[in-house]
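Example record used in the benchmark description.
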Amino acid sequence: MKIAQIAPLMESVPPRFYGGTERVVSYLTEELVAQGHEVTLFASGDSITAANLVACCTQALRLDPAVRDIVPYYMLMLDKVRCQAERFDVLHFHIDHFHFPIFRHLPIPSITTLHGRQDLRDSLPFYAGFSDMPLISISDAQRTPLPHANFASTIYHGLPRDLLEPSLRANGGYFAFIGRISPEKGPVDAIRIARGLGVPLKIAAKVDKQDEAYFREVVHPLLQGEGVDFFGESFEKDKGPFLRDASALLFPIAWPEPFGLVMIEAMACGTPVLAYRAGSVAEVIDEGVTGMIVENIDQACRMAPQVAKLDRRKVRRRFEERFTARRMATDYVRVYRGLMRQAAAHSSAHSPRTARFASGAGLRAADHLVSDVEPHAE
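Model output (structure tokens):
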């Protein structure tokens, strides 16, 4: 199958620092290549991939100090995709909304994975206006605000099975917090939970420009006391040891989290998760197995000792059952195959001239490859 993956340009694929969406695109792309598909990745020029790379800007836009407006770069990228669209069996977008008007009526089937929150008011009229564009949600909770959108499936994120090595014992004696320093991620509550229990807390998190005042005025003063270490933005190579040695990952979010990649990263390390009940959390955490779900700081302080005692072998085993990149890619291939069948049927019925875009060798290859992959493990 010939597949185009269209990634955000803010970070490289995979990202050098923080970047959940770009990291997932990388895992998916590399697994699809490993399964024998011909994959082309549209991304920043500093991306690293086994797929065919089409560079759509020199480097990740967030790391280029000369960039003031990101929109022109996305427009140039979409023009490159449009000009090459006939080469592919399916186009897979990871860039939110930019492409909808351009690719809506092309005969090449496309799918869009929504990676962000969808409970904002402006989303409702947009998806109502493009109700024919097929979407992927990354949790069932993410799609709740958009009951009439055209969701083809919910596909949970996955990691390469051997990306992160598990540990059967937490050697560091601390809690971990990874993510962004922003109110919705809950760094203040994480600090209060750790201090309430007298357990050290290590924070590896980036500070976006829009959150600099929050960090300076609210979070930074709390870092001055005992027991909290702030490491800033973590390199990917440091994430494994950071999570592996933690007694638990604290995930006290205050927003409708679409997925929460760091939760399954912790599980891959054998590290259980203590999280607030919001967004996708109840779908990702198996309570009593991979972590516990609480409502507030008081409950977190009561449950944290139990979370730290969970069997890390079972945490890792559940990760392998539910959240590998192989399972994620298998689920996407199934969706691609369905889209290609729909496109072939529609083209044959309405315009035989365009049927070549969605039928023939590409569809036969898809049938063969899908039959060789294992079913979705839950």
